[in-house]
Amino acid sequence: MNIAVCVKQIPDPATPYELDAENHWVIRPNDQVLDDTDRVGVEVGLQLAEATEGTVTLFSMSPSGSLQGIRQALAMGADKAVLIDDESLKGSDALTTARILSAAVKREGYDLVITGTESTDGFTGVVPQMMSEILDVPCLSFARNVEAGDGTVTIERQTTTGYETVTSALPAVLAVTAGAEEPRYPTFKGIMQAKSKPVDTTTAAELGVDPVSSQTITAVDPVAARAAGDVVEDDGEAYLKIVELLEQVKVI
Amino acid sequence: MAESIRPGKLDATDFLQIDELLSGEERLMRNTVAQFVTDKVLPNVGDWFDEGFFPRDLVKEMGDMGLLGMHLTGYGCAGTSAVAYGLACTELEAGDSGVRSFVSVQGSLAMYPIWAFGSEEQKQRWLPGMAAGETIGCFGLTEPDSGSDPGSMRTTARRDGDDWVLKGTKMWITNGSIADVAIIWATTDNGVRGFIVPTDTPGFTANTIHKKMSLRISITSELVLDDVRVPSDAILPNVSGLKGPLSCLNEARFGILFGAVGAARACYEAALDYAKERIQFDRPIGSFQLTQRKLVEMMIGVNNGMLLALHLGRKRDEGTLAAEHVSYGKLVNVRMALETAREARGVLGANGITLEYPVIRHMNNLESVYTYEGTNEIHTLVLGQAITGLSAFS
Ligand SMILES: Cc1cc2nc3c(=O)[nH]c(=O)nc-3n(C[C@H](O)[C@H](O)[C@H](O)COP(=O)(O)OP(=O)(O)OC[C@H]3O[C@@H](n4cnc5c(N)ncnc54)[C@H](O)[C@@H]3O)c2cc1C
Ligand SMILES: Cc1cc2nc3c(=O)[nH]c(=O)nc-3n(C[C@H](O)[C@H](O)[C@H](O)COP(=O)(O)OP(=O)(O)OC[C@H]3O[C@@H](n4cnc5c(N)ncnc54)[C@H](O)[C@@H]3O)c2cc1C
Questions:
Q1: What is the pLDDT of residue A102?
Q2: How does residue A213 score in pLDDT terms, banded at 50, 70 and 90?
Q3: With contact defined as beta carbons under 8 Å apart, do B270 and B348 qualify?
Q4: What is the pLDDT of residues B317-371, one digit of tens each?
Q5: Fewer CB near the terminus (10 Å): N or C of chain A?
Q6: Rounded alpha-carbon distances, angstroms, from residue B323 to B141, B185, B370
Q7: Minimal Cα distance from B40: which residue of A?
Q8: Residue A193: band (very low, low, confident or very high) from pLDDT cuts 50, 70, 90
């Protein structure tokens, strides 16, 4: 099976990153890391590839920089990577991102596209659905326990109350949840081999996509400081008050 | 001249931006080990230390990653650079010196002698399983009456027909009671020789040493060799004399001079966080001049220690590192780590004595690191001899 895994290189969340004062885009350092969420996508892709003697190709739209994030995913065991690195794509919105990624996976050929549910830095959570629309294939979202074979893929789709078992024909787009699998650590051998694995770089023009984004970020406001919580004194009946509070926020 | 020198925005830990001196591959390896430590060691290490529990499940996982014997080549070993091995030790020891000790003993003290001095058959038989973490090794040099002066060892190996028969007692042996195989150093008619001894050989007993207040998640044992009979192919063929065990120790000490920086860093970071949060006299204690001085000294120690380690690591990869350099690094960095841990302990006040914080655990662990692999005094005398040309030992 030919598996495409979309992975984002993002600024290391451990080191605070800055926004460009003018256009509010993230200032991307040379060294970016693999988005933690996408480690799960890579893990699911590798397991399916191992089960089906398939291959895993990574797709990423970002400035190459030192390629550290991509190498991390290659070191986990992916076979090769396609990187869309194009100055004209700077500040792309989710739709442009989805068009670019769709064009790239289509060009390379795929049976299954795997993405995360939402990225750690942008977290619009819409790229997989947009890709399925553009590619005109089914979208299986909030997926865990993924199994594939005989031209189909079956998942457990997480819902607010439990999960649904969903089966679809291939090709398809699959968005995995953050806890779907525990991602493997890259091995030291894998890390050393990663530098000789093929990384193809391409552009929007080569993919025939017009890099126009209709989204502009008009303002970015800091999150309001969290207000002090309410204290419920237990006079023997506090549980009633807590149940009421939970009902108010629709948790129960 | 470039632009003028201006104030910068500097990281409180990597103040000198030593990260820039590492290759992308080195950083990826370092980050991988750091992630492993964050996920698998830090959540439970305080409890393990409290209970004196060795997390055996981690061994296989470390084998899968390629951490065991990572700087050796072939036979299932990853074959990384020496710097990468050192950086891995830094991250492991930022978790706990006991985890780093396991990796040092397995890779540098048990696998290395087989890799460097063993026959082809010995390498094929032992190394792949040890690299994978399926076979655990230990290294028996020290004896109850022979520590800093290993030349005084009493364990003997005598020829009997084609076999060798080993007799004696080894003491303070890391991994002893969990090892599948022991590298035993013993005197023969032709000087000190190394033997590969499966621990299920009749006459071999390992007794765990209890009531340790240091390296509590690492297992330390006494090995009793009561006429242990091994075949002729158990001897390491390609080395004789004390240079055999000493070259293994140099490999391990190389890891320790990186590792100690990790323990120091963990203590410094804990103290820095605490000093910024803890309010006394209406101010964070980190605002007091006395505390700032402590924090700055710790930060300098950690940064200088890392620079030193990296310099020695680059020399190791170039093939220009001398044994005396390793003594320098072990002496300076372990001393720095112990001082940092003790200072950090004080900054944390009463909280500094509990296992809720990492500091006292590191502080106690470092007492062992200060003593094993050549005590501070012995390395001082090695350096003394190097600069005066006069030996303090004879
Ligand atoms: C404040 C702000 C600043 C921004 N600054 C920048 C910027 O400086 N540079 C820039 O390029 N974009 C920037 N964007 C745009 C944003 O990164 C895009 O919307 C993003 O490329 C896709 O959206 P997302 O990350 O929210 O995707 P989501 O839909 O949340 O991601 C889901 C999954 O889609 C896949 N995916 C998403 N994006 C990519 C990608 N680029 N490559 C491979 N797989 C991907 C991953 O598998 C991911 O797990 C910014 C957005 C905001 C809100
Ligand atoms: C937790 C732990 C794990 C260990 N693991 C192993 C292992 O796996 N394998 C192994 O073989 N050994 C191991 N050791 C043993 C360790 O290497 C020895 O403890 C060390 O070599 C010191 O020997 P000693 O304890 O006998 O001290 P001694 O040699 O008796 O020294 C006592 C003191 O005298 C000082 N001293 C000795 N000679 C001189 C001198 N000439 N001039 C000035 N001062 C001197 C020393 O520096 C020290 O301060 C371990 C030890 C510990 C604590």
A1: 97
A2: confident
A3: yes
A4: 999 999 999 999 999 999 999 999 999 999 999 999 999 999 999 999 999 999 9
A5: C
A6: 19, 20, 18
A7: A185
A8: very high
What phi and psi, each to the nearest 5 degrees, are found at residue A168?
-140, 155
Smallest CA–CA distance, residue A45 to chain B, in Å, is: 19
- Distance between CA atoms of B239 and B227, rounded to whole angstroms? 23
Q: Is the model's pLDDT at A16 over the cut of 90?
A: no
Domain residues of chain B, as ranges? 18-132, 137-234, 243-388
- pTM of structure: 0.91
Interface of B with A (CB under 8 A): 11, 24-25, 27-29, 31-32, 35-36, 61, 64-67, 70, 78-80, 84
Cite the DSSP H helix spans in A109-174. 127-135
Q: Total structural domains in chain A?
A: 1
Instruction: Classify residue B142 by its DSSP letter.
Output: -
Determine the average pLDDT of the residues in A22-51: 91
- Which pLDDT does position A169 carry in this prediction? 96
A186 vs B28: CB contact, 8 Å cut-off? yes
The pLDDT of residue B263 is 98
**Site to substitute for ligand 1 among A70, A127, A132, A173, most atoms within 8 A of C-beta:** A127
| Domain B18-132 top-level CATH class | mainly alpha
pLDDT score recorded for residue A28: 84
B388 in helix, strand or coil?
A: helix
Provide the annotated active-site residues of B.
Answer: 373
How would CATH label the architecture of B137-234? Beta Barrel (2.40)
Banded pLDDT at A13 (limits 50, 70, 90): confident
d(CA B300, CA B310) in angstroms, rounded, equals 15
Task: Closest CB to A189: pick one of B11, B27, B66.
Answer: B66
CA distance B121 to B125: 6
Domain containing A42 equals 2-248
| CATH superfamily entry for domain B243-388 | Butyryl-CoA Dehydrogenase, subunit A, domain 3 (1.20.140.10)
CATH number of domain containing A12: 3.40.50.620
Buried b (16+ CB within 10 A) or exposed e, A81-100: bbbbebeebebbbbbbbbbb
Give the Cα separation of B333 and B257 in Å (integer).
6
pLDDT digits (tens, 9 = 90+) for B124-182: 999 999 999 999 999 999 999 999 999 999 999 999 999 999 999 999 999 999 999 99
Q: Is A30 on the interface with B (CB under 8 A)?
A: no
CA distances for A164 relative to A127, A149, A154, angstroms = 22, 19, 10
Chains A and B form CB pairs within 8 A to the count of 52
